[in-house]
Design a protein that fits this description.
The chain has 157 residues and is α/β, with parallel strands linked by helices. It has one domain: 3-Layer(aba) Sandwich (Alpha/beta knot), CATH 3.40.1280.10. 43% of the residues lie in helices and 20% in strands. It contains 5 helices and 5 strands. Strand 3, helix 3 and strand 4 form a beta-alpha-beta unit. Helix 1 runs parallel beside helix 5 and helix 3 crosses helix 5. The radius of gyration is 15 Å and the shape is globular.
Length: 157
């Protein structure tokens, strides 16, 4: 199974870049993993929130394959503890999922077709975080889940 971290927005800021690279590299010891950043539309500053979400949705859908298992990160989603995230990953692997995609939407969230396409909607917290930090938290939590699956020492109960 391959993992794809998909995020709408600017490239990683330097203050989180090394952390994202560190944890993404650690995840890579368990699963092939990559990041795909979807830039905001060129005229995003002049677009309404709805128009921007629709444009981003088109770009997101172009990155998805029909058999991808899509996990959308959204503050209104279901919350999991770390063993729960590990269980979600293990279930996908058991189902021979080819590609597990974790999506971080744009500043205003995602358009309804993306929410409907998502197989799971996951909330990291009831708090709202800057997108750059969500990328770092996502990479770390997926590494943590992988270490749980392998019964390694990183996660302490």
């Amino acid at each position: 199974m391959k993992l794809l971290f998909l995020s709408v927005g600017k490239p990683h800021e330097t203050y989180v870049q090394s952390g994202i690279e560190e944890f993404t590299g650690r995840v890579g010891k368990y699963f092939p993993v990559s990041w795909q950043l979807i830039p905001a539309p060129k005229n995003a500053a002049n677009m309404s929130e709805l128009a921007l979400k629709k444009a981003e949705a088109l770009a997101i859908l172009q990155q998805l394959q029909s058999d991808d298992y899509l996990i959308l990160l959204d503050e209104r989603g279901q919350q999991f503890n770390s063993p729960g995230v590990a269980q979600v990953i293990q279930q996908r692997a058991n189902e021979s999922c080819k590609r597990l995609v974790f999506l971080i939407g744009g500043a205003f969230g995602v358009d309804e077709p993306i929410t409907k396409r998502a197989n799971t909607v996951w909330s990291l917290s009831k708090l709202v975080f800057p997108h750059m930090l969500v990328r770092l938290i996502l990479a770390e939590q997926i590494y943590r889940a992988c270490s749980i699956l392998k019964n390694e020492k990183y996660h302490h109960v």
